[in-house]
Amino acid sequence: MKRSQHITLGISIGSLMFAGSAVAGGSSRDRSAPPAPDQPDPPAASGSAGSMFYNALTGIYADDVNLDAAPLATNMIVVYQHNFGIYPYIRGDNGVHVNGGVPQNINLNEHLRQLAIDIERYIPDPDYDGFVAIDYEEWTPFWDDSVERYREHSRAMVRQNNPGMDDAQVERQAKTSFESKAKRFMKRTLEKCQALRPNAKWGYWSYPKKSFEDNNANWLWDRQDAFFPDVYMPYQLIPDGQARENGEMHTSWFVEDRLEGRVGFARELAGDRPVLAFAYPRYEPRNTNQWIRLTPLNEHDMTMSLEGPFQYGADGVVLWENIPQPGVVDAFQELFDSAIAPEMVRILADHGVEVDESVIASAETDETDTSASSDSDAASDSDTPSGDDEPSEATRRATRRGVTRFGRQSRGGGG
Known about the structure:
alpha/beta, 10 strands, TIM Barrel, globular, 415 residues, 9 helices
């Protein structure tokens, strides 16, 4: 969708009907991804005309999913911290420091040199003019919004170098050092990317959040070419006033935190720059590291995720899903055909975006043909192999259709 064709959808978030049943299709999700390919294919250079939705399927088996039931643009690339430059982070599972662990320890020149290599590898077309979202998600450049392990290690570094400081002095020095080096890292990264691929629209994934509002981050907002907030949903939504019995979240929370606090805030900052909201079709609890067998969004929550962002100023919605194993393909195919694609087609058709008749017919057929969904789910649960069972040809399935998720293989430090 062109920037000048911004559409405000006439929906009322509070009036959306709740549908208690989950949409068909179970699936696995594994955040580990394959190693990056030696020679990835170039990404698509232009999107699907007339679409407000973008393909974000990733994983080595993403190409095996048939997306013909809905028109999705493909001019989107996502690059990730483990294979894009030299990104410092501390592993949450074992505390291992990778690439120095914190931004204070990174050699910025080495990072920028590696970044140039990775850009040439993953975006070989110097004239690429699509979107690129940088997923650097282990820490933020804002002290109060970063995970505690980064703050604690920053304090420890100050104490080691300044044994006579009291706690208040340590806190001030640690915050100043962390934020200044984190800011420099993210700013110089973005500047390098824009210099090497000037026609692309660069931005950081999951930025901004409303909690960043008081951090004087114009240095970042002014530099981004596009904004990529996410509207991922940790738990099922329930009407305001209803008791939360199993960790559910009230609808007002989703509206205030995700739609207003992320998409709406991004729209305020973006001006005439694009805002594309990332949506994930499953619930993603934050209190677990089990990324498999996540429950698909129910009908109401699917609508909130796919249509809600437009009400708050998004120019498009990016559908993200990981397809890391062959057993996940059928499960996600069922979910896409029976729930996701029909909803996308409805949104497009209801708001005047022309959709090819063959796509509409395919979506209608898929929506009514759900009788085998339970069998498909059962097969997925029993047949989905572990990562150790992946075939050796997996690496060659490098470039995904649509959003490309490059490998989670880290450089240096125990990753």
